[in-house]
Amino acid sequence: MGCWGLGAIGFSDIVGSGWLFGAMYAARIAGPLSLLCWLAAGALAGLVALVMVELGASRPEAGGTVRWPLYANGPLVAGVISWAVLLSVGAHAAEVTAILRYVSHWLPWLYHGARLSWAGLALAAAVTVSLGALNWFGVRLFARVNLLVSVLKLAVPTITVVLLLVSGFHPHRLTEHGGFAPYGWSAGLTALSMGGVVYSVNGFQAPVEFSGEARDPRRDMPRAVLTAIGLAVLLYVGLQLAYLCAVPEQALAHGWHGVSFDSPFGQLALLLNLHWLALLLYADAVVSPAGGAFVGVAAHARRTYALAKNRMLPHWFMQVHAGSGIPRRGLALNLAVTLLFLLPFGGWQDVVSTIGNLFLLGYATSAVAAYTLRVAGPGRVPGVRWIAPVSFVVATLFVYWSSWHRLRVTLPLALLGVPLFWWVRRHEPTAVLLREVRKGAWLPAWLLGLLACSALGAFGGTAVLPQPYDSFAVAAFSLGVFGWAVRSGRRHLAEGAATAPDGMAEFPR
C-alpha cells in the first residue's frame, strides 16, 4: 500500500460514529469552548502519532504495537499489552450495534428497548461476518474498498458543514448564553474525555499496524498518519462550528447543557427544512460506523498475528495466507470474539466501551519503546527524545480522563495480564521469570498508581485531589514512571535479550 491507501485507513478509523454525536456532547459540556477542544485533541494525537510513526517507519512490522514493547522492555510488558489488545477486539461490536441503531430508524423491530432483538442479533452477526469477508481476500481489495468508503465519509460531513452554515449560520451563538466559555475553562478539559472528543480522534494508529505491508514505510508512514489526523481534526472543527451556529434559539432556553438531540445533525437538518440532507445523514450514519469497524477488523488481524509471534497465542495463528497476504486465522479468531460480545448480556455495551480504552495503554508503551530503541539505532522523527516522554504523559492523561467509572474495570482487567504472563512461561526457571518481572515491574506499578490516582481524583473519584491538581499529579507520576521504564529497557537491551530479529529468542519453543 502507498501513502494514499495508508492515509485513507487512518482517516476512516478516526471518522467513525463519533462525528455524529461528538459535537453535541462537547457543546453540552463546554459550550463554544468546544471548538478549542478539537484543536487540543488534534495536537495531543499528533504527539502520540509521531511516536507511532517513528516506530512504524524505522521498524515496519504487522501488528507492531504489540511487538515493539517486546523488543524494548521484554516479555512481561509485551504480555500485558498483548492481553489488553486481545480484550479490546470485542470493541468492534460497539460499531456494529451503532450501525444497527441507525438502521432501526427504518427497521424498529431490530431492537427491544435498549437491546438487540433476536432478529437484530442475526443481522449484527451477518454484518460482522461481512466485514470479515471484505478483509479476507487480500490487502489490495481492502485498500480499494476502504478508499471508497473514506471518500464517502469525507463527502457527507463536508456537505453537512457547508449546508448548515449556509442555511442556519448564527455567529452570535458563540458569545451569547454565557459567553465563549459558559461553564469555565476547566470544562474544556472535561469535554476532552467525557464529551467524546478524545474518542473521536482515536484511530490514527491504524496505518502503523499496516507498516509491514507498505511499499515505502519510511517515506509514506509519516505523511499518511499526520495527513489523516489533520483532515479529521479540520472536519471535526467544521462540524462543531456548524452545530454551534445552527442550534435554534428556543433550544438554548436552558443554556448549552439543555440541548439534546437523538440524532443531532439529522434533526438540525430537518429543523432547517433540509429533508434530503437528513436522509443522507441517516444513510451515512450506517456507512461511518461500518467504515470504522471495517478498518478495525483488519488492524486487529495484524495484532492477533503479532500476539502469536509474542507467544501469547498458539503459533498456529501466525500463518499468513499466501495468495491474499492476510493472517486469516487471526481474522477468524477476532470475528469469533466480536460475535461473542454481541450476545445480549446485561450492560455489555458499557463493558465494550470500557475495553476500548485499553488501546491507550498501547500508546504509552509505544512511547517508551520509541525512546528506548532509538538509543540502539537511528530514528526517523526529529525530536523524539522529547516527543516520547510528552507522548507517554499525554497517553496517561487520556487514560486518567476516562473517569474512575471506566478505569475501575479497565485497569484491573489489564493487570490480569501479569498472572497470564507467569502462566504462559511457567515452564521456565523461576530465576529467569523473576528477572523478567524486575525488568517489567514499572508497568504494573504504573497501572496500580494510575488506578489510585483515579480513585482519589476529580474525574469520577472521591475528589481528594481536586482539579487541576489531580491532572498535574498524574502528569508528574507518569513522567517518573517513564524514566523508570526507559532505564529498565536499556538494561534489557544491554543484556542482549532482544537481539533476535523476530523476538523468538524471548519465547523458546
UniProtKB/TrEMBL annotation:
It is found in: Membrane. The keyword Transmembrane helix applies. The keyword Ribosomal protein does not apply. The chain crosses the membrane at residues 6-26, 33-56, 76-104, 116-139, 145-166, 224-244, 331-348, 354-371, 383-401, 407-424, 445-465, 471-486. It holds the Pfam family AA_permease_2. Keywords: Membrane, Transmembrane, Transmembrane helix. Signal peptide: none annotated. It is a multi-pass membrane protein. This is APC family permease.
